[in-house]
Amino acid sequence: MFDFNPNARRRAYLLAVSLAALATAAPAFGQSEDRTADKGEAQRPRVSNAKPVAPNATVNLLNLMVKRKLLTQDEADSLIQQADTEAYVSRQAAKDARVKADEAAKVASEAASAANPPGTRHVTYVPEVVKRQIRDELKKEVMAKAQKENWASPGAYPEWAQRIRFYGDVRSRYHGSFFPKGNAQADAINFNAINSGSPYDLSSVTNPYNWPTYNSTQDRNQVRLRARLGMEADLAYGFNAGIRVATGESNSPVSTNQTQGGSGSNFSKYSIWLDRGYLKYEAFERDIVLSAGRFDNPFWSPTDLVWYRELAFDGFAAQGRYSVTPDFSVFGVAGAFPIFNTDFNAGTNLAIEQSKFPSHDRWLFGAQLGFAQRFAPVSEFRFATAIYDFQNVQGQTSETCYVANSSNGCNTDLTRPLFAQKGNTYMSLRNLGSLGTSNNFGAELQYQYFGLVQKYRPLVVSGSLDLGEFHPFHIVLDGEFVWNTAFNRSLAMNGVGLTSLPGNVGGYVYNNRGPTSDGTLGAYDGGDKGWMGRVTVGNREIKHLGDWNVHAGYKYLESDATLDAFADSDFGLGGTNLKGYFMGANLGLSDNVWTSVRWLSANSIAGLPYAVDVLIVDLNAKF
C-alpha cells in the first residue's frame, strides 16, 4: 500500500536527490578517496573517523549524505527522529489492535462455552437460507417415500388409487318454447317416432288417424336437469382410461337432459346412461392421441352447425399435432365410427318368408386437416377443413313385400335411421305387394317405414379468430360452412323409383316440399348448404366470480346439408332446415358456478311454415 502523507513525499524526494548526487559525486563503494592508489603506491591501513554503521539502511544513507555534505547534521537528525516517531506510532497501533482482538476472542470463547455444554462440537456456520433449503428438500424426500409406502397417512388411498380422478357437473335449466301463429302443424311429421317403433299404416281406411307430428303450436314451459359423473385413470406408458355416466330421458345422442316431472312423474327416479367409456394412448407430450371406445368429438369444431357440442363418438380416432415454429402448428384428425350395426338375427316373421336380412351396417369416416397461428401472446387464428363420409345411410327401396300386420318386416327396413331429429328429406321404403282380399289388393294395411332420400358426404370449413388484446377479455369470431358434396337434387325432384301406391303423396318424397295455391304439397324445396357466424366478447372461460361473456350469431342450415340427427338440439328444437339468430350471456357466481341465458329464434327454410322461439336459463356447477 502506498503512503500518501506529505512527510513521506518529502522523504522520497530527498532520497531521490541524494541518490542522484551520490551517483555523480561519490566514489564507488569499496574504493579509497586517496588518489595515490592510482600510482601503485602501497597504502598503509589507518583508523576511520566515520560513525558506526547503523542497522537501518535509511539512517546509513542519511549519514553518508551528511559526510558528502549533501545534508547538514541537523537535517539528518530531524529526519531520523521523525522516522523513529512514525515507526513507534505504527508499532503501538498494531499492538493495540492485537490486544483488542485477543480480548474479543476471549469474550467470544467464554460466550460460546457458556452457550454450549461440554461435549458440544463446533462446525462451520451455515446460513439460514441454506438450512431452509436443505430442510425443504429432506422433507420432500421423506414425504414422497411416506406417501408411496403409505406409512405417513394410514388410511389414505394406495398409490394406484391416487392415479384416479373423479369429476362431474350439475345443471338446472328452465326451457321455454314459444310458437307464433301461422305454423303448419300437419307438416311437422315425426319420422323418428315412426322409425323407432312399429311401422305406420298409411291407409286412411284402416288407420284414420293423422301422422304423428311434432308440437308446433302449443307453448311449453319445462324444468330440466342434467347430472354427469366421470372418472379418469392414468395408466402406465401413456395409457389412460375413462368412463362417465349421465342423466337423460332416452338414449338420444344429442341430449342428456331429464325433464323433471317426466318419466313416470310423481317424483319418479330417473335413468342413468353410459355417456363415455374409452381407452386412450398419448405420446410425445400429447402431440399424438389414439382413442378407442366412446369419447368426446375428436374433430375441432368451433360451432354446433354440424356437430352438437355434447355429442359422443363411438369407434376409433387418431389425432396428431406438429409445431412448425413456436407460434405455428398444424394438426390432423382421422377416424372410423360405427353408426349402426345390424341385429345379428334380423329377419322376417312372415310365414311364407322365413329368412334373415342381409347386413346393412352404417359407418362414418372422417378426416380433418388444419393449422393454428399465434400472432400475439393471447391472440390466435385457427382454420381447418374436414370431409365426413356417411356410409349406407341412404334409404333403399325394398323388394316386393307382403305385410299382413305391423310385426312383419321387409328386407330394407334396416336402412331407415333409428334416431333422427327433423329436417332431412324422407321417402317410403317398402314396396308393398297385394295380399288379395286380405289387404284389399294393397289399398289397406299399408305399413310403412321411411328412409333418407339423400346420401351425405359433407365438406366442412371451420375458422376461429381470437383477439386477446384486452386480456383477460377477448373478442372471438367463430364461423363454419358446410356443403353436402353427395347431394343429388334429381332424386327428390324426379323420384327414386318407388312404385306409386294408393295414399302415397307423390309416391316418394313426404317433406320439404313447398306449398301450392290450393294448399297441397308442391315441388321439392330442400337444399345442401349451411353456414353459421358468431361473435363472443368477454372472458374465454367462466371459472370465477365476476367472469362474464356475451355472444350473438346467425345460423342458416338447409334441409340436407348434413344429417339432422347430430345437429344442435336447442336451435329450432333440433335438426336442420332452419335459419335464424341467437344471443346469450354467461356470468360467474362463484368459483366453478355460473348462470347463463340464451334466446334462439328459428324459422324453417323449406316446406310449410314453421317457427319457434326458445328461452333457456341455466344454473351450472362443476367439480
Automatic annotation (TrEMBL):
Coiled-coil positions: none
Domain of life: Bacteria
Cited Pfam families: Porin_5
Signal sequence extent: 1-30
Region Disordered: start-end pairs: 32-54
Protein name, entry field: Porin
Keywords: Signal
Keyword Signal set for record: yes
Taxonomic placement: Bacteria, Pseudomonadati, Pseudomonadota, Alphaproteobacteria, Hyphomicrobiales
Biased composition (Basic and acidic residues): 32-44
